Amino acid sequence: MSQDTIKFAYWVPNVSGGLVVSKIEQRTDWGIDYNRKLAQIAEAAGFDYALSQVRFTAGYGAEYQHESVAFSHALLAATTRLKVIAAVLPGPWTPSVLAKQIATIDHLTGGRVAVNIVSGWFKGEFTAIGEPWLEHDERYRRSEEFITALKGIWTTDNFTLRGDFYRFHDYTLKPKPLQQHPEIFQGGSSRAARDMAARVSDWYFTNGNTVEGVKAQIDDLQAKAAANHHKVKVGVNAFVIARDTEEEARAVLAQIIDQADPEAVNAFGDAAKQAGKSSPEGEGNWAKSSFEDLVQYNDGFKTNLIGTPQQIAERIVALKAVGVDLVLAGFLHFQEEVEYFGRKVLPLVRELEQRKVAAKTAAVA
Ligand SMILES: Cc1cc2nc3c(=O)[nH]c(=O)nc-3n(C[C@H](O)[C@H](O)[C@H](O)COP(=O)(O)O)c2cc1C
């Protein structure tokens, strides 16, 4: 069990349409003014990280998309403590360009940038930008080499790699990033995703799931990581609907699903399920998602952070007890709900964490 306090990240809405594929009103905006203010609110509310999204074309709505590395830098420039995770895809990015970009941003922002290495699920997007579409496990083999290259460039001089996808010869990056190496996140649920996390990533992000589902994934991941002598932390996605009463929160969920855009949800579902099933064992993200689950495109309802602040805080502490280190939160009305979360939910989480520590200490004494 993790001894530290659980960390919080929020999804940066840098693509249009919010985080649910529904016609319900979403008081959010993908533009920079809204996002700068949101980052400042999140930092004041006690969030540790912001996660940007990488997207080159529309797929389920998401008609407009700001580029993630540039956008992350703007959010870092507008804050002082928040860490911002820039999402990138091997393919369009090469490790040489990304290592350099991130090293510079790290210097510009006092060492607060991180990266999310996204392996890709959306074939239409790759076709649109003229990138070859590798088969599922090949995408992960490439991502692993990408991460190995990034770490090598960031931490050593005279870096040499003769890989299947990337080659470096006696390369020394100057300046190196301020942080020893900026944290490396990755997403995915498939066997290949977990195996990569158990070997090279600092953080493993998974789609929303029940506590039991998350536990099964974490047990599997951590057993493999231990065998590899590798340390990896875990973040879980959740769509948070915190309201003063449970009825209000449940009513909001019902409205989101009632007003779901079936065409867009089904178009996303077709692409996502193809991606989920295309991993050899068929356990990729979305392989088991229902229509309702897909309305939040990373299965965020399944985590069930929907209810009163007290209910949500208790569920977060239950997630922590099975090995979750970070909750990645999405919201309907970002600015107002991030503020509410910081004021009402976070203090309860800290209180429950304190009580657990005190109970443990008393049991030992
Ligand atoms: C928290 C999280 C964030 C993700 N962010 C992005 C993103 O910004 N862009 C993208 O194309 N895919 C994103 N993905 C998709 C994953 O990188 C991966 O392609 C997908 O989960 C399918 O993986 P699997 O088949 O291994 O389960 C994200 C996944 C998770 C869990």
UniProtKB/TrEMBL annotation:
UniProt entry keywords in alphabetical sequence: Flavoprotein, FMN, Monooxygenase, Oxidoreductase
Molecular functions per Gene Ontology: alkanesulfonate monooxygenase activity
Ranges of residues in domain Luciferase-like: 8-325
InterPro entries: DMSO2_SphG (IPR024014), Luciferase-like_dom (IPR011251), Luciferase-like_sf (IPR036661), SsuD_RutA_monooxygenase (IPR050172)
Biological processes per GO annotation: alkanesulfonate catabolic process
Keyword flag Lyase: no
Keyword Transcription regulation applies: no
Family matches, as Pfam families: Bac_luciferase
Top-level taxonomic group: Bacteria
Family, per entry: Belongs to the SsuD family.
Protein name listed in UniProt: Dimethyl sulfone monooxygenase SfnG
Organism: Pseudomonas thivervalensis
